[in-house]
Structure formats: C-alpha cells, structure tokens
Amino acid sequence: MNYFPDEVIEHVFDFVVSHRDRNSISLVCKSWHKIERLSRKEVFIGNCYAINPERLIGRFPCLKSLTLKGKPHFADFNLVPHEWGGFVLPWIEALARSRVGLEELRLKRMVVTDESLELLSRSFANFKSLVLVSCEGFTTDGLASIAANCRQLRELDLQENEIDDHRGQWLNCFPDSCTTLISLNFACLKGETNVAALERLVARSPNLKSLKLNRAVPLDALARLMSCAPQLVDLGVGSYENEPDPESFAKLMTAIEKCMSLRSLSGFLEVAPLCLPAFYPICQNLISLNLSYAAEIQGNHLIKLIQLCKRLQRLWILDSIGDKGLAVVAATCKELQELRVFPSDVHGEEDNNAAVTEVGLVAISAGCPKLHSILYFCKQMTNAALIAVAKNCPNFIRFRLCILEPHKPDHITSQSLDEGFGAIVQACKGLRRLSVSGLLTDQVFLYIGMYAEQLEMLSIAFAGDTDKGMLYVLNGCKKMRKLEIRDSPFGNAALLADVGRYETMRSLWMSSCEVTLGGCKRLAQNSPRLNVEIINENENNRMEQNEEDEREKVDKLYLYRTVVGTRKDAPPYVRIL
Amino acid sequence: MITELEMGKGESELELGLGLSLGGGTAAKIGKSGGGGAWGERGRLLTAKDFPSVGSKRAADSASHAGSSPPRSSQVVGWPPIGSHRMNSLVNNQATKSGREEEEAGKKKVKDDEPKDVTKKVNGKVPVGFIKVNMDGVAIGRKVDLNAHSSYDNLSQTLEDMFFRTNPGTIGLTSQFSKPLRLLDGSSEFVLTYEDKEGDWMLVGDVPWRMFITSVKRLRVMKTSEANGLAARNQEPNERQRKQPV
C-alpha cells in the first residue's frame, strides 16, 4: 500500500538512475513495479538475446533511451564468426511500429545495416543520440541518412566500428538548419572526409563539446576547426603526418591556446612528434589522454608531454612509453584513476628493450594512490611485482593483465603466477573485473574463488590444470556475471556441476576447452531458460557426420540466460541445443 | 636483414612450407582428420613447431629463434586480446615503419618489385588490415590480417590453416597429407582470388605483394572450375618482374 500518490512516488523514482537500482525497486511490490515501469526512461540490455523487442516495449512503453549489446566479448578478437547474430533491425522495427519516443540508441557489438539506420532516422522525431561501439555492417550511406533526417541530433559517436566508407558526402547531409550537435566522433572512418563540409558544420554548432576526427583531417584543417570551436572539451586529433611549416604550426598553436576548456585529448592517428609541443599549453588542464593509436611517437616525446599533465585521471598509452615513462607518469599524475598500456608490437618480434615490464607496473601502483582500473600488456611479470602492486593499490576495481606469451611463468623464479594474482584478489576487496594470464595452475582459481567476492567478470586464457579450477570459480564467486574462458583444460565435470548457476549469470563462453557435445547436450536438456549455442566452424565436418559423436569436443560454446527461448536468426553453423 | 626484394621472392614461390624465408624444409605431418571431405587433397596443418622461425615480416630475426618453441603470441587465433580495430591500426603502423626501414636499406637494389613512388605511397598510407575471406563451400567467412603477412606464401599458409583446420578431438591421423594445398599455382582444386578496389575479381599472385595489399578488398578461395573466367593480370611490367620459382 502506498502512502503517497503515484506521482510523488514517481518523482522519487526519478532520482534513482542506475538500472540495477531501478530493477530492485520494481521488485518491491506490484504497485511500485507498475509505477517504475511506466516511468522508466533508460533501459540497458546486456544481451540482446535475453529478451525480445516486444516484451521490452510491453514493459517499458515510455522508454527514451535503449542500450543493447550483441556479440560476446571475445568477438572483439575474431573468435566469433561473422553473421553469428546481434542484428539491430528487428529492434528498430519494433520500436518504430509501437511508436516509442526513442531519443537515444547505444549499441555495442551489434550488426547495424544502412537499412536500420535509415529506418531509425525516419521513425523517431525526437531522436538525439546515436552511439555505436564495435559495430559493423553499415556504410557511410547509413550515416548520411542519420545526418539528413535526424533534425534534433545532438550526438553521433562512432567508436571502433567497421564502416564501409563509400567516400560519399555524408557530412554534407547535415542540413544547414542543424545546429544542435554536441558530440561528433568519426575517428574510425577510414576514407576521405569532406573537410569543407566539416568546417561548416562545426562553425554552425555552438554547442559542440566533443569532436573526434579521422585520419583524413590534416593539420591545417585542425587549426581552423579549433578556432571555430574554442569551447571544445574533448578533441580527437586526426592526422599530423608531416612536420608542419612554421606558419601552420603557429596557427595551430594560437588555436590551441584558445581552447581553455579542453579536458580530453585523443587520436593522433598519424603523427609527427614535433607537432606535440603545440599542445603543451593545455596539458595542465587535461584529465584524459589517449595516445594509444599514436605509434609514431617515441617514448621521450611522450614523456615530455605527460610531464605537463598533472591533473590526468585517465591515460591510454602504448608500451613504447617504457618503464622509464611509467615512472614519470607515477611521479606526475597523482590523480590517475585509469591506466591502459597497449602493445605497440603485437608480433613480439622486436627485441624491444623499451617496452614495459613489471617494473613499470609497480612504479605506477606506488605513485598513483587513486588508481582503480588497469589494463596492462607486457612481456614479462613476476609474483613479487604483483604482490607489491596488491599492497600498494588495494582499491582496484578492474585489473587486467595480459602477458603476451601464453603460459609464461614468473621470469625470475620460473614459477607460476598463482601467488601474484592471489595477492591481487586478496587485497582488492572491491575487484569487479579480472583478466589473468601467464603460467597459472588450478591454485590461482582457488584464490579467486576464495577472495574475489565482488567479482563480476573474469577472463581466462591458457590457464588451469583440471576441472577443479573452473569449479573453484563457479562455487566461490557468487556475483559472477560474465565468465569467458579459452584454451584451458576445463571440461564437462566443471560445466555440469551446477547448471542452475548459469541463470544467475549473463553468459558463459568456453572455446578450445575440453567440453564435449554430450556435455553440452546434458546441460541444455533441463535448462529451458538457457540458450546453449555451439559454434562449429568447419561445416564440412558437420555435413559428413551421420552419427553424432558425443565425445567430440566442442570448439566454441556460448551459453546465456534468456526468457525468450531459442533465437530464430542463428546462422547454420550455430547450433542451439 | 631481409630486404623487400628477398621477401618478394616468396610471391612466386608456390611450394607451401618451402618458402625461402621460412626456416625448414618439408614440415612434419601434423594432420588431424575431419570427415572425408569434399576436397581431394587435405590441407596439411603446419604449426609453429614446423617452422622455428616462422611467419613474420621480420624474418631477419629468425636466426635468434632456433628450435621449436611454443606457439608465439602472434600465431594463436585471437591472441593477444586486442580489438581488431586497434590491431589494424597497429599493423598499419608497423608496416609503415618496416617499409621505411626497408626503403632505406633497399636503395641499392636495382630490381625492386615496384617503383619507388608506389612504395612510398603504400608506406605512407597503408589502409589494409583485416579483410574478409570466404571459401566456396564453407559457410563462415573469416578474416585475415594482411599486414601480418609478408608474401603470398605466408598468406596462403594462413588461409590453409584457417580453412582446413578441423575440429579438435576428432579421431586421429588418417592417410596421406602429403601435399600442401597449393592455392597459388592452380594445381589444386582451389584457387585464391581477390576483389580489388574497382570491384573486379582477380587471381591472386600476379602483382607484386605490396601492390596487392593496397588494392585488395577481400579474398575468396574459389573452386578452380569456377575460376576460369577470371582475369589474370598479364600486364607487361609485372611479367618482367616475375621471378622464377626456385
């Protein structure tokens, strides 16, 4: 029974923003459930196959913002074949049919077509914001429809998508009357850009705060763009290919100096390092710096730049910065919260003495007390270093360490890295995401199961000895939501130990492990609320087999909870048990 | 240091597994069987153990990596776990860097595979990273990272590994895996073709590698019987530059 009228309760609910909290309040009673669902504006769907558009709209008819995620995380590394799924069109069609007042659509790892974008652009008069992350299937023609038809567009943010660039004039398609842009990110476009159209667009967008350019936008254009938009907060620089002549450089410097609001810098997709000094004046204001695509910049140039960035909270960088550079970061960036160090040499060919090691990691942990998220690619690690890191930084929420060579042990003691990671999970009581690597036995999973009580996402590759490893994790980590495993010796015993567990998780991925077809079938048998997908890439093997061999190992297993049963859009090589 | 020219020799070198820049002679049989299969000859699975110094642009380092070694970071599918978008960018940059190094070292070479200005342009803007590969009869397309390959040889080997890899755990070795697939010489059931920027489908192997990677949009492993109508690019300059297989 409610003591207040519904409107009051609804007003109170307005202050509850997090979708998890809103999910919780909707469970309190029928009345709250109803009020909550009719007032819900933003819906987050972590797996687009867990629910369908009809049920979504049925429950939340007033939604304005929808976030959808499609393919599993390992799709980022080419482990999920094309056409696996994650198509957004049915969602847009359903939303359009039901006349939902959609204003914002955020998609990750989905297949988006030009047709969907066209439909999207025509169906929702108040559409304001489109964010596409790691999506594919569309071209610049689709972008042209968005530009042309979305009269209220404020945000077009394209992050790391695969877009077929038809080198059309999509930027020209923004009508002259479009002046509402706040954020425009097309850094991932590979083709030519109509720079003149871009300049005109920026000039008529006084609210533009975030602009991220692609490779094709050269230095002189950058200077002009920045002059038109000194209010920019977030800038992605395109291409700085050649050393500029003094005059261009001076113009650039003047433009940059005016951008006193600039807080975030990224891009530098092609860069001549001598251009960096133009940015020195604004470094002291930066809170976010992403130089992870700037392979051309040598360590010492990076160091000079970073030394000026005393307020930095987020840094994404390549390992060419070296341990020396990380020591400078540790000494300078006392506000640092998130660090990502990517490899600059993926083939592991170069004898790169400048690359980062465990020394850099320890230095960062010692120097940056606010650090809570790290992604670190390196060639070597030691238990001692990890133990030191754990002691220095018990506040980690996300800890992802990727030692490039699979199975690599502690390079000084030649032991496994169980103790090192064990120290991390024991010290970091708030740890929610963990990726492990290097030589690891079942022991590390025992530690994880024992200590990582808040762990929600765990990525395992080339680790463990027996089923016990996976069992320790499943039994211990009660908050686990996403578990992804590759090339590890876990099999049916672990998979089948607690089938009910998987309904408390979003998904489980296992590839190149020891689970067999028989095991997966048994799993699927009594689990109507799980979709158990087997991805079998070698079609010819399948066709040849008259009798199924249940002892056959499954190449890729992806299972996820769902309330809508088997999906109908799976390609032939995906078998849903 | 292996120069552009020497790596280029691999283009016409059609013996898979006997590439000049690769360490060994005939590789050991490490086949796994699948079903009887529609193909007459199965591809042989070659792994890092066959080639102690395999599969990289920097074959020059091969001397320092003698003997068999565990699969290298770059040879395991989907490892290291870097998003494909980022990977493309990285390998583009590496190609640019290596191209510049080779340019400097290769100045003394008389017969280059392509004119210098094309090389410069390629190195300045290498657009290609992962491209799609489809094979006739196989439902799933794959992607291959062109910039991780230095020659047609490398590429052919990778494709062979990709499409003839069988399910793990299937029953052991069957009979002959004597012959490699030979995608490049027209002697097997399949040929390798590509779609270029103009949308035309061509046979792979006729143009110098560097020119190829700038113009290729996607690949297709086609049944030889269907490939008869394809244009073989018999442009004279290329003819002149073709090397004899060793």
Q: Could you describe the 3D structure shown?
A:
Chain B: Homodimers and heterodimers. Chain B: InterPro entries: AUX/IAA_dom, AUX_IAA, PB1-like. Chain B: This is Auxin-responsive protein. Chain B: It comes from Arabidopsis thaliana x Arabidopsis arenosa. Chain B: Belongs to the Aux/IAA family. Chain A: It is found in: Nucleus. The complex is a heterodimer of chains A (577) and B (246). In chain A, 47% of the residues are buried. In chain A, the strands form two sheets. Chain A has a 21-stranded mixed sheet, covered by helices on one side. Chain A has 20 helices and 23 strands. The longest helix of chain A has 13 residues. In chain A, 32% of the residues lie in helices and 19% in strands. With 577 residues, chain A is of the alpha/beta class. Chain B is of the alpha+beta class and 246 residues long. In chain B, 25% of the residues lie in helices and 11% in strands. Chain B is built from six helices and five strands, in the order αααββαββαβα. In chain B, helix 2 runs antiparallel to helix 3. The longest helix of chain B has 22 residues. The two termini of chain B are 20 Å apart. The N terminus and C terminus of chain B are likely disordered. At the A-B interface, helix 20 of A face helix 2 of B.
Structure at a glance:
Chain A is of the alpha/beta class.
Can you tag this structure with a few keywords?
heterodimer; A: 577 residues; alpha/beta; two-stranded parallel sheet; 20 helices; 23 strands; 19% strand; globular; B: 246 residues; alpha+beta; five-stranded mixed β-sheet; 6 helices; disordered C terminus
Topology order of chain B in helix (H) and strand (E) letters: HHHEEHEEHEH
Can you count the beta strands of chain A?
23
> How many strands appear in the DSSP assignment of chain B?
5
Shape summary of chain A: globular
Q: Tally the helices of chain B: what do you get?
A: 6
Unreliable stretches of chain B, pLDDT < 50, 5 or more residues?
A: 1-69, 108-127, 166-179, 233-246
Radius of gyration of chain A: 25 Å
- Describe the global form of chain B: globular
Order of strands across the biggest sheet of chain B? 2-1-5-3-4
The pLDDT mean of chain B sits at 57
Oligomer: heterodimer
